[in-house]
Amino acid sequence: MKVTPAAVVSVFLLWALLFSIPPAQATGLSLDDAVQAALARSPAVELARLQALQAELNLLAAQLEKDQGKRLEYLEAQRALEEAQSALRAAAAEAAVQAEEAFYNVLRTGELLELFRRAAAQAETQVAIARARHESGMLSRLDLMEVELASERAAARLNNAQREHDAARLALSAMTGHSPLPPLVRPEEPPLEEASLLLRELDWEAAVARALSHHGEIAAARLALQSAQQRLELARLSDAPPVEIRRAEIEVQRAALRLEEAEARIRQALRDSRDALLAAASERTLREKELALALQRFEVANARYKAGDLSLMDLFAAEDRVMEARLDAATALWDYNVKKARFLRLIDETATKTHNLPSTGGFGLYLHE
Q1: For a pLDDT cut of 90, what percent of the chain falls above it?
Q2: Neighbouring C-alpha atoms within 13 Å toward the C-beta of 140
Q3: Strand partners, 25
């Protein structure tokens, strides 16, 4: 691996191009812009970048002394550069993932905030109706107190949702450097595929192999094994004492075991992520069925109330169940999409473009009247 001063300079130019903070678009902040801005501001990425540049300089110095009998130092410098580059890729991927999840968290909390606003408005309307009925002697004082308490609870939940949304916006603002945070541009959302279809069409062994080939922990373990093998080969070629050769052999065995352990952990993580995706898909389906059932029950309750066959309190209860079902369905949909995106990242379905992950959108399905 030959490193020239021109190559070192090119690294600075490349990173300057990749991680310059893009201005927010006139129409708002897109997901790609948010990820690029977060990468430019990430301390972890900057530290990893500096470490990689230092490793390149060290390798350049070691290369100049390679012909002076310092081949072992050169191999170590080469390994250090490969590890630094692997760490840089891992840091950039992690920063991109965090930015993406922060971006979608703003969208998620915004959607839920709108639902809680509707719930609070619905509760206020119920209080107004209940008070009018109470004043006309058609509703007991205890029933009125129950409706008023439900309204207070809805107002408290709205306040909590507002704080959560504000916190999500502040987190994304700090991550991207955009203050105040401009409106977010919702990514175009392809039709959502079912988890069962996704897994049924997936070549599992190929997906595992792809994940192992790109995972930072696996890459570091493989580099450590290669370095240990190189040291062992060098020790044998240089007629080192038997004890030194044995030490090098033990280090190769240790590195091989660490690689096996790392691969086992990643395989288990893939299985856990797959199971979590299937569970989230099942939960999403159930919540959507519960919402459809709650809507049907409310229609029946409303018809019975108009016919004088149902009390006002029972009608309010049916209406509240619809709102709760909307919230549960929206939350389940968000959870499903997050788990699907994480699973796709683990199997490297999105390759190295970590900011082009599947959308978690779709909350608008639960906002209509």
Answers
A1: 42
A2: 5
A3: 28
pLDDT tens per residue across span 28-53: 899 889 989 999 999 999 999 999 99
Tally of CB atoms within 10 A around 164:
17
d(Cα 208, Cα 114) in Å, to the nearest integer? 40
What is the secondary structure of 213-239 as a DSSP string? HH-HHHHHHHHHHHHHHHHHHHHHHTT
Backbone dihedral angles phi then psi of residue 29, each to the nearest 5 degrees: -100, 120
pLDDT given for residue 347 in this prediction: 78
11, pLDDT greater than 70: no
**Residue 155 neighbours by CB distance under 10 Å:** 15
Q: Could you tell me the pTM of the whole model?
A: 0.73
Buried b (16+ CB within 10 A) or exposed e, 336-346: bbbbbbbbbbb
Cβ 338 vs Cβ 355: under 8 Å: no
| Other C-beta atoms lying within 10 Å of the C-beta of residue 267 | 13
Greater confidence (19 vs 62) lies with: 62
What is residue 39's three-state secondary structure? helix
Q: Which of 319, 369, 30, 358 is nearest to 195 (CA)?
A: 358
Cα separations in angstroms, 352 against 12, 94, 203, 320, 356 = 20, 11, 19, 45, 9
Burial of residue 142 (number of CB atoms within 10 Å: 0-12, 13-18, 19+): exposed
The reported pLDDT for the residue numbered 67 is 67
Rounded distance, CA 80 to CA 78, Å?
A: 5
For the chain, what's the residue count?
369
**Cβ(358)–Cβ(349) below 8 Å:** no
The CA distance from 146 to 136, in Å, is: 17
Mapped onto helix, strand or coil, the DSSP state of residue 353 is coil
Question: Which segment, 27-36, 154-163, 203-212, 327-336, is predicted with the most confidence on average?
Answer: 154-163
- In 3-state terms, what secondary structure has residue 2? coil
Helix axes 71-135 and 141-176, enclosed angle (nearest 10): 150
Q: For the chain, what is the largest distance between any 2 Cα atoms, rounded to a whole number of angstroms?
A: 104
